[in-house]
Amino acid sequence: MLVAAAVCPCTPLLVPEVAAGAASELDALRAACLDAVAVLAAARPGRLVVVGAAEQPGRGPFPQGSTGSFRGFGVDRPVRLGTGDDTAGERELPLSLAVAAWLLERTAWATSPVEGLGVGEPLEPERCLTAGRELAERDERVALLVMGDGSACRSLKAPGYLDERAEAFDAGTARALAAADTGALAGIDAQLAHELKAAGRAPWQVLAGAGEGAGLRGALLYDEAPYGVGYHVAAWS
Predict the structure, then answer these.
(1) Alpha-carbon distance 76 to 79, whole Å?
(2) Is the bond preceding 203 in cis, omega lying within 30 degrees of 0?
């Protein structure tokens, strides 16, 4: 059963070494993410599953101890998902899960075992919901750390340029996360999310499946669009 969830952006700019000179611009976002992870720890789950956007479908599960890096950004900053030895996994973590591993390192996560699940952007909503339901059934007390960005079309300089639909899309997502509204998350239009380059759609719908009937309450901790990309941080408990 799902007992808690935290939703954070998957942008590597959360990692100060990657953001470099612009690191201080996202201090409030980092603080909100760490607060959300603290809600997970307070719930004392028996298992934590990190769910994040992946370039390819079916990427996972990633066992505890799996490693990742930010070498693609010219940064020598390895990370590890929870504790474990170097043989825990042969595949490198997708970028979203590497960012999550960095967050968990910052909080010195030791509350429960951790594993990762990469969700491909094309995964259909119903399959996302099914995956979430299966995750929630794996332990009496499951928590999710869900990594995904909103639209990337909020300004002229955004990665996807300006799309007038983006602000309303992000506002709807923010309302759903604030209210822990699994039905609204399940109903996100996958095609629209794809057109708006919203990397969080599939992970959010995994959360929707896991949270069905759990009776959790939501709190929205951050909702801004620096650099023209929608970033949401929420905590469900």
Answers:
(1) 10
(2) no
